[in-house]
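Continuing from the previous page...

OK, I double-checked the sequence for NADPH-dependent F420 reductase against my notes and this is the correct one:
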Amino acid sequence: MSYAIIGFGSIGQALARAFARNNIEVTVASRRRPEDLLPQAQAIGPKVIPRTLQEAVKADVIILAVLFEGHRDVARALPDWRGKTIIDAMNTNAPVETLDGLPSSAFVARSFPGAGLVKGFNHLLARTLAADPNVEGGHRVVFLSSDDAAATADVADLARRLGFAPVNLGKFDEGGTLVQARGPVWGPLIFQDLFKQEP
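Thanks. Re-ran it with the corrected sequence; updated structure tokens here:
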């Protein structure tokens, strides 16, 4: 299984640290040239490899860590996304009417035909995401939601490999709506640093 993070801002770099900490190779890409990403990537770890967007989308599992409005630019990199798992780590405050009344990840999924799209890793602040998730005898929780059960299982497995405790909230229009960023009302609830204790 190969992995890529598209977007190398604070969230992308935080996720790259999680891969590096667990000695898992990951491609990183952004609008900047690979050589421009190299100093930051090398500072994180030798298995964080800057590549072009066209190279990054060859990965089996791709994490979207771009600004929400940039997801369509990524989607144009391939005509068909069959066989790919996309992790939507983005948040948006776009009005519901601009998303055709859909949860944001269901809206994003339209741009990646054939892919299994999973919402995940979006509720933690970058500094928390970058820190070791093994804390006080437990594991930091990441919430997942998707309409694709097989993709969710793959992402849950990755989350565990990275040291997190995955919690499946169900489909996008079920429990998954909890992690679709929508104003300040739910934010204090979902943006918490939760832990799952070892059994």
